[in-house]
Amino acid sequence: MNRTSKHTGLGLALGAALGIVFGLIAGHVAVWLAIGVGIGVAIGASLRPKQPQCPQCAAMHRMHQNGGSAH
Fold first, then answer.
1. 3-26 and 29-46 are packed helices; what angle lies between their axes, rounded to 10 degrees?
2. 8, 11, 57, 66 — which has fewest CB within 10 A?
3. Cβ contact 10:44 at 8 Å
4. What range defines the domain where residue 13 resides?
5. Residues 14-34: tens digit of each pLDDT
6. Rounded CA gap, 45 and 20, in Å?
């Protein structure tokens, strides 16, 4: 499983849980479950790390992550 699906899955699970809770409180579980899932997927998609724009930036970021210097 890659990292992006992990974030989306986590958002989906949290949104579904909140949707069920609000649905039980309001008395409309199906509606709130759908709203919660939609919000959860949106939040999970927004948690993805941003990808570098150019190859030079990507190489520099990889070097920093590996503990090397960019000089």
1. 150
2. 66
3. yes
4. 3-65
5. 899 999 999 999 999 999 999
6. 21
Binning pLDDT at 50, 70 and 90, where does residue 12 land?
Answer: confident
User: Quick check: is 61 in a domain?
Assistant: yes
Higher pLDDT, 36 or 4: 36
Tokens matching residue 1: 């499983």
Domain-located, residue 70: no
What pLDDT score was predicted for residue 32?
A: 93
Tell me the pTM. Answer: 0.59
Query: How far is Cα 10 from Cα 4, in angstroms, rounded to an integer?
Result: 10
Q: What is the DSSP letter of 51?
A: P
Element (H, E) at 48: none
